[in-house]
C-alpha cells in the first residue's frame, strides 16, 4: 500500500506543470500552443527566452528532487526509484492538463541527481556537452539519459537501480520520438532559435 501511495503522490507532484503555470500567469498564454507544443522548459526557452525558461527548469528539477526524497523517506531506495519514475510520468502526462505535459528531462535531472549524484553529474555533463557542440537540446537530453543507464551497467549498484535507469531512459527517448524524426530529416530546431508569439 505504501508503494501505491508514494507512486500517486509523486505522480501528482509531477503534474504541477511549471511551464504552463509560469507562462499562463506571466504572459497569459498556453505554452502548448506555441513552438513544439511541449509544456516544458525547452519550449519556454524557445518561445520566451532564457529568463523565462530558467525558473521553469529549476522548479522542474526540484519536483524530481522532492519526489525522490519523499519516496526514500517512506520506503527507502525502492520508494525513491518508484517515486522517480512516477514524478516523471506526472510531468509528461499531467492529469490536470489532459495528459499534455513536457518531456521530463529537467525532472529526470532532479531524479537522477538525487538517486546517484556522481553518475547523475557525469550523465548531465555529457548531455550538456552534446548540446553545446550540436546545439540540439533533444539530442543532448537523450544522450544524457542513455549515458546514465549505461553508467549503471558499468558501475552496477543493484538490479532495481539499473532497471530504473533503463526505464527512465526509455521514457525520455519515447517523449522525443518526434524530435528523432526531425533530427533524421535535418529539421530539428537548434538552441537559440526563437519562435515569434503572434
Automatic annotation (TrEMBL):
Membrane topology label: Multi-pass membrane protein
GO MF assignments: acyl-phosphate glycerol-3-phosphate acyltransferase activity
Keywords, comma-separated and alphabetical: Acyltransferase, Cell membrane, Lipid biosynthesis, Lipid metabolism, Membrane, Phospholipid biosynthesis, Phospholipid metabolism, Transferase, Transmembrane, Transmembrane helix
Superkingdom per UniProt: Bacteria
EC number per UniProt: 2.3.1.275
Key word Transit peptide present: no
Gene Ontology cellular component terms for the protein in this record: plasma membrane
Catalytic function, reaction form: an acyl phosphate + sn-glycerol 3-phosphate = a 1-acyl-sn-glycero-3-phosphate + phosphate
Record's keyword annotation contains Membrane: yes
Entry function: Catalyzes the transfer of an acyl group from acyl-phosphate (acyl-PO(4)) to glycerol-3-phosphate (G3P) to form lysophosphatidic acid (LPA). This enzyme utilizes acyl-phosphate as fatty acyl donor, but not acyl-CoA or acyl-ACP.
Quaternary structure, from the entry: Probably interacts with PlsX.
Name recorded for this polypeptide: Glycerol-3-phosphate acyltransferase
Protein source organism: Caldanaerobacter subterraneus
Lineage start: Bacteria, Bacillati, Bacillota, Clostridia, Thermoanaerobacterales
